[in-house]
TrEMBL record:
Keyword Nucleus among UniProt keywords: no
Entry keyword annotation includes Membrane: yes
Record-level GO BP terms: response to symbiotic fungus
Bilayer topology annotation: Single-pass type I membrane protein
GO molecular function, one term: metal ion binding
SUPFAM superfamilies named in the record: Cupredoxins
Keywords noted in UniProt: Copper, Disulfide bond, Electron transport, Glycoprotein, Membrane, Metal-binding, Signal, Transmembrane, Transmembrane helix, Transport
Record localization: Membrane
Phytocyanin domain boundaries: 24-125
Segment forming the signal sequence: 1-23
Descriptive protein name: Phytocyanin domain-containing protein
Transmembrane feature ranges: 139-159
Lineage of origin: Eukaryota, Viridiplantae, Streptophyta, Embryophyta, Tracheophyta
A cellular component term, taken from the record's GO annotations: plasma membrane
């Protein structure tokens, strides 16, 4: 009987694990990558960015790069003048969003920023809330959780 309780406990933990909010990795521009003449504002407009998420910039290096700038640098397409923030140049740059607020990124190669190779996003505090899909006895469960609960029920019935 104790082993059934242990298995039930472990299974319930597995059922609940997917509800823990996980960070999202956003590939900037999706399959288009990081390049001039692409509308990154349209790409970002339907996305919600949270602290803990990651931006991935894919591009050929050289010639492209990624500079984190302030609002003025974004608007004027000007890279930072201080050396404390060097450009990212790997061609597969990952930036973890560690704080909430507005974030601005540009490519500083010739006129690439002026041609649209720039991104501004707003990062929200905290992880996203899981989307509810069905209510069971006052608790909200996802389809995965209902499926796993059914499997546990069958397992307990067979083991009893």
């Amino acid at each position: 009987m104790a082993s059934i309780k242990f298995v039930t406990l472990i299974t319930m933990v597995v059922i609940l694990l997917p509800t823990i909010a996980m960070a999202t990795e956003f590939v900037v521009g999706d399959a288009n990558g990081w390049k001039p003449s692409f509308d990154y504002q349209a790409w970002a407009k339907d996305k919600v960015f949270h602290v803990g998420d990651t931006l991935v910039f894919n591009y050929p290096s050289p010639p492209h790069n990624v500079f984190k700038v302030n609002g003025t640098g974004f608007k004027e397409c000007v890279k930072p003048t201080t050396n404390d923030q060097p450009p990212l140049t790997s061609g597969n740059d990952k930036i973890e969003l560690k704080t909430a607020g507005n974030k601005w990124y540009i490519c500083s190669t010739s006129n690439h920023c002026a041609l649209g190779q720039k991104l501004t996003i707003t990062v929200m505090e905290g992880p996203p809330a899981p989307a509810p899909s069905s209510a069971v006895r006052g608790f909200i469960f996802s389809g995965y959780q209902v499926f796993m609960a059914a499997i546990v029920g069958v397992f307990i019935a067979v083991a009893a």
